[in-house]
Amino acid sequence: MTKPLGYYADTNIPVVGDIEREYGSNLQDMSQQCKLFLIRDIAGNLLLDNFDPEREPKIFELANRIRNEMSEEDDAIALIKAIANNL
Questions:
Q1: Which residues contact 70 (CB under 8 A, 6 or more apart)?
Q2: Which end of the chain, C or N, has fewer beta carbons within 10 A?
Q3: Over the Cα atoms of the chain, what is R_g?
Q4: Dihedral angle sign, alpha carbons of residues 62, 65, 71, 75
């Protein structure tokens, strides 16, 4: 069972409250593609501010392996969940 948006993020933040009202407390009214887009966009913005590729050279090789070796969408989403739950 998934936890509601408010468990993870403060729904008093206007944009988070808007998301909850528009897409439901469990984001049940948002498509998987839209969820993945938001994950990519938010992560990309955080990455620009906090990532030094010189300090993590192996991560590029790992990203390429994931892209090449994980052909099933369900497997890729499971990996996203595992990584997100360990942030």
A1: 76, 79
A2: N
A3: 15
A4: negative
CA distance 60 to 53: 8
Gap between the Cα atoms of 11 and 29, Å rounded? 17
Tokens for 43?
Answer: 């992560």
Q: What is the pTM of this model?
A: 0.83
pLDDT, one tens digit per residue, over 2-24 is 899 999 999 999 999 999 999 99
For residues 49-71, average pLDDT: 86
Residue with tokens 């890729």: 76
Q: How far is CA 32 from the centre of its chain?
A: 11
Find where tokens 């969940």 sit.
81
d(CA 5, CA 27): 7
